[in-house]
Design a protein that fits this description.
By secondary structure, the chain is mainly α. The protein is 54% helix and 0% strand. Helix 2 crosses helix 3 and helix 5 crosses helix 6. The longest helix is centred in the middle third of the chain and has 12 residues. The chain is elongated, with a radius of gyration of 16 Å. It starts with 9 loop residues before the first helix and ends in a 14-residue tail after the last helix.
Length: 106
């Protein structure tokens, strides 16, 4: 049996979503599955980002952390995504990739 989407506090979920959290992340906080959170936000008319993508502020953070010298895997762990997503963000933002295994010297 599915989760009743009306049980989700849409105002709180929308505020968390607008702050950059994913539906899955919101679900963990509110105690509901991510797909149920997404359905509730859709029904409430909240403008949703494409699935499996990061908020612009999170993408800014990805770029900053990578430019600070962290490897993609560490950036991914810090922002809660996969290293492939980090490389996608860097490509979209025009940030050149470092050769594998090379770290910036401080």
């Amino acid at each position: 049996m599915g989760v009743s989407v009306s049980a989700i506090d849409v105002a709180q979920a929308a505020a968390l979503y607008r702050s950059g959290l994913s539906c899955d992340g919101i679900g963990l906080i509110l105690g509901h599955p991510g797909p149920a959170v997404r359905r509730r936000l859709e029904r409430a008319g909240v403008a949703l980002r494409p699935r499996a993508w990061l908020a612009p502020t999170t993408m800014d953070r990805v770029v900053a952390l990578y430019r600070d010298g962290l490897p993609a895997s560490a950036v991914a762990a810090e922002v809660g995504c996969h290293a492939c997503t980090v490389y996608s963000v860097l490509r979209r933002r025009g940030v050149p990739w470092r050769p594998r295994g090379v770290r910036l010297q401080k």
